[in-house]
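I have a small job for you when you get a moment. Can you supply me with one protein entry, sequence and fold together? It will help me judge whether the discrete encoding reads sensibly. Write everything out right here, beneath this request:
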Amino acid sequence: MSIDRPWLASYAPGVPHDVDVPDEPLTASLDRAAARHPARVAVDFLGATSTYAELADQVARGARALHDLGVRHGDRVAIALPNCTSHVVAFLAVLRLGAVVVEHNPTYGAAELRHQLADSGAGVAVVWEKTAAAVLEAAPGTALRTVVAVDLTRDLPRRSRALLRLPLPAARRARAAMRATVPASLPRWHRLVAAATPVPEEHPRPVADDLALVQFTGGTTGTPKGAALRHRNLVANTVQGQAWTGAAEGTETVYAALPFFHAFGLTLCLLYGLRIAATIVPFPRFDVDQVLAAQRRRPGTFLPAVPPMLDRLAAAAEADPRHDLSSFRFAFSGGMALPAEVAARWERVTGGLAVEGYGMTETAPVVLGGPLSADRRPGALGLPFPGTDVRVVDPQDPMRDVPAGATGELLVRGPQVFAGYWQRPDETAEQLLDGGWLRTGDLVRIDERGYVVLVDRIKEVIVTGGFKVYPSQVEDQLREMPGVRDVAVVGVPGGDLGEKVVAAVVLDDGVDSAHVDLAAVRAWCQQRIAGYAVPRALVVVPELPRSILGKILRRAVRDDVLASATA
């Protein structure tokens, strides 16, 4: 099929139309960086640094430690950690053995983890101490046999560790935020790595077509399933990212404020950073003060982010001239729409550029990006990355393209598109069409310059703070709450969050709304779902609108919620 590519004329100067994807695994980036830039700082975690030579040694030792635990080629290994040096080491150590990483949100509860662990078949899990209890609760009935605990404070500089031991309230609070008591029987990650000898050079390495990652996503349906990404898919996206940014090897400092357990943060912060031999500055969570402290210590040049991050950092810089963000050459925003005023504010305080991007877990994840030039267009999703084709089709007949400029469903094709869903051939066949075209579930139009503009979402996913919330998952938990007869969960405009999660509930007969208020709903949900999915507002209604087939009409619920808010 011949594809018209009007977007090529809008590329920034120097960006190639296509890319050559090397026939290599992800671990080749670390090997190259350690050989060419051994003394360059690879990771700076809150002031504790590791050079590329040191990182390569730690990864080799971590690989041996995992091998001693029985991990072999093709095995799945679960990782549930905040961003930290241990996360980087564990991720690369798994890949070094030809095994497969399964990333998990470390704030998940046992119910969410149980499904994912059972689905992936992971036999070993490397987890944060504060996540260990939920993982152990979720383990029965799964293939999980070994849980390795990670003490996050062991990644800190020695001085910071010493301060945490002080008998002061602030030190106790900081220590409690990072540590938890775990069973003495659990092996400890740092001890295992320290005691291990490096895996030998001759140990077989993965190849480009090996599976590298199973990343859970709701796709376009909201049913959690693992997107299976090969080394080749992820390498392709890092090569495309380097072509887009024009980054020179060994020169950039990438701030990793986005979580590695999310596809956006994993590729743009960690894997892209390794590809260009950058110094990666990870944060366990986004905290303005922590980022500004790091900026004084090791100025950043590239910030992948969601819009609220850019807005809050820019506001801090505007409020206090001592906060200098001028080292940032560009920011790449995703996860939600980038407001023009946020982009302008960031560019005003940094002197750099802020562009928007678009992608999916199934595309490793970036498909579109705004050009790093004067032609960037706030409000547009961007232009297809080099080597990426897009089509706009009739959602009811995805084999039929709509006329130029018309609205339709976005299809994408490129070397970054995933191999399919883990052990779900039927759902893979629904999403991946003949010719390698992936259905995105988003309605868009392409203008005359090739910019893709989002019009609407076919799926009812809520995007809050850059995270996707699938209404059915929240509804399933709330229906179990005593006093709740029925529920619909929708997203409404939520300021810098993008959207706010709202629960509309129908109460059981005789139940007083004083007993099922927002605080009670939030308390119920916080034990069962991720924090970002917990409703931020509650509406009690006598009934929910339904279709003739009995399906809840979430759009009608959303319209009613918005109307009542403005009444």
Summary: The chain has a mean pLDDT of 94. DSSP finds 17 helices and 27 strands in the chain. Residues 52-68 form the longest helix (17 residues).
